[in-house]
Design a protein that fits this description.
Blueprint lengths: L4 H12 L16 H16 L3 E4 L5 E5 L7 E6 L13 H17 L7 E5 L13 H6 L5 H6 L8 H7 L13 E9 L4 H5 L3 E7 L1 E10 L3 E2 L11 H17 L5 E3 L3 E4 L5 E2 L2 E10 L2 H22 L2 E10 L2 E2 L2 H13 L4 E6 L5 H7 L2 E6 L15 H19 L12
Parallel strand pairs: 3-4, 3-5, 5-16, 6-15
Antiparallel strand pairs: 1-2, 2-4, 6-14, 6-16, 7-12, 7-13, 8-11, 9-12, 10-12
Helix pairs in contact: 1-3, 3-12, 8-9, 10-12
The protein binds (2S)-amino(hydroxy)ethanoic acid and manganese (II) ion (MN) (2 copies).
(2S)-amino(hydroxy)ethanoic acid binds next to loops.
Length: about 425
């Protein structure tokens, strides 16, 4: 049994039209009107595939395909929200490939033993409402509903209000699961598979990620009369910190760091910036090293404050600790690929995914499809139809291995 690659490709193309950007990418921020349109389309497709659709209290959409047995389901999931001017595959690929698995099983008239559930997670990107993986984290019990609903975007609009506005605030009882095993298919978003000349990745785990909010308070003043020695230019301090974050990350093997978001106030040409807020994203496979990176950031902040006369506050507001996936599920993915004659490479994900929190709930693993030039979170994000097809077929095979087929012996240990 193989997925219908043309149908998958067609679905990806149709979804990519919602929030399409001139450069060939997509902007579909969580709980935006574009996200609502995409959700409406996905829900229609789920219903057309005879899935029983439900929406939970965080807007997570679940489509359930009954098995011959009731009880714990095998979940296939990802997200359809994107970053700003992101790619057409990040998240959408995993959701639509899971839908394609359901469609393929319908075409083949196959009933699995365990139920299958397809989930679209709200706000995986954490771009509009920080932090990332908010709704899967909430389902895993890492965030309270109050925390989630209270998160605000740059305009002060809350998650809760937006969820109501787009009509996707459902019930707590509609959360995904109960879960026997979790699979997430995703584009790699990095160079490993392309460098190795391999189409599919078997993901061992996800690196540690920590996000900090930096607030720099200087003194706004006239850009003309104010003598240089008296200035407390918040943006000059920020420039030193931005370069320092890059130095800190480069100094430690396996570390990465960037300042992705920055605002300067009052942000006018003839006023010395009095205040800067910006983000710092630091990542490393090891927790203690991640803490060392943050300690380096905090030292840098206080050195810059002393040197330039500004105040620098570092608020480490989110940490996603390094997460190894369940060996038996990782092996099931590797076996599925091998059985299909698809070559794979095993490695850790540098990108965060909802699978991180789902590993708290049930044994989980991920499958990657090769990213061309390793690019992602940009309009140039691309994967070939052949690689997307290979990844989706591995998802199909792994899901069947874990769910079992009615009338056949289930290969997965019963949990
Ligand atoms: O930040 C991440 O790694 C993910 O794309 N949200
Ligand atoms: Mn993603
Ligand atoms: Mn992403």
């Amino acid at each position: 049994m193989r997925i219908n690659a043309h149908r998958l490709h067609e679905s990806l193309r149709q979804l990519a039209r919602i929030g399409a950007t001139p450069g060939g990418g997509v902007t579909r921020l969580a709980l935006s009107s574009e996200d609502r349109s995409a959700r409406d389309l996905l829900r229609r497709w789920m219903e057309e595939a005879s899935l029983r659709v439900r929406v939970d209290d965080f807007g997570n959409i679940t489509g359930r395909r009954a098995g011959s047995e009731s009880g714990k389901a095998v979940l296939m999931a990802s997200h359809i929200d994107t970053v700003r001017r992101g790619g057409c595959y990040d998240g959408a690929y995993g959701v639509l490939a899971a839908l394609e698995v359901m469609r393929t099983l319908n075409d083949a008239g196959v009933t699995t033993r365990r139920p299958l559930e397809l989930v679209n997670w709200t706000n995986e990107e954490g771009v509009r409402f920080e932090p990332a993986m908010l709704a899967s984290g909430a389902v895993a019990g890492r965030f309270t509903p109050e925390y989630v609903y209270g998160r605000t975007d740059r305009d002060g609009v809350t998650f809760g209000d937006e969820l109501e506005r787009i009509g996707y605030k459902g019930d707590r009882d509609n959360r995904p699961g109960p879960v026997a095993a979790y699979l997430e298919l995703h584009v790699e978003q990095g160079p490993v598979l392309e460098d190795a000349g391999i189409p599919v990745g078997v993901v061992d785990g996800i690196v540690g990620i920590t996000w900090s909010e930096i607030t720099i308070e200087g003194r706004a003043d006239h850009a003309g009369p104010s003598p240089m020695p008296l200035r407390r230019d918040a943006l000059v301090a920020a420039a030193r910190l931005i370069a320092g974050v890059d130095d800190i990350a480069r100094a430690i093997e396996g570390a990465v760091g960037t300042v992705g978001r920055i605002t300067a106030e009052p942000n006018v040409i003839n006023t010395i910036p009095g205040k800067v807020t910006m983000s710092v994203d630091l990542r490393h496979p090891d927790s203690a090293t991640l803490d060392r990176l943050v300690a380096g950031l905090e030292r840098l902040a206080s050195d810059i404050a002393a040197l330039t006369g500004v105040t620098v506050a570092v608020n480490r507001f989110w940490t996603s600790e390094p997460t190894p996936f369940a060996a038996e599920i990782v092996d099931a993915v590797e076996t599925a690929a091998a059985e299909m004659g698809i070559s794979t490479r095993r490695f850790w994900s540098g990108a965060g995914h909802d699978a991180k929190y789902m590993q708290d709930v049930a044994p989980s693993a991920m499958i990657f499809a090769r990213s061309i030039n390793g690019l992602s979170h940009c309009e140039q994000e691309y994967s070939t139809p052949e690689d997307l097809e290979a990844g989706a077929n591995v998802l199909l095979r792994a899901a069947l291995g874990l769910a079992g087929i009615e009338g056949e012996r289930t290969s997965h240990k019963r949990g």
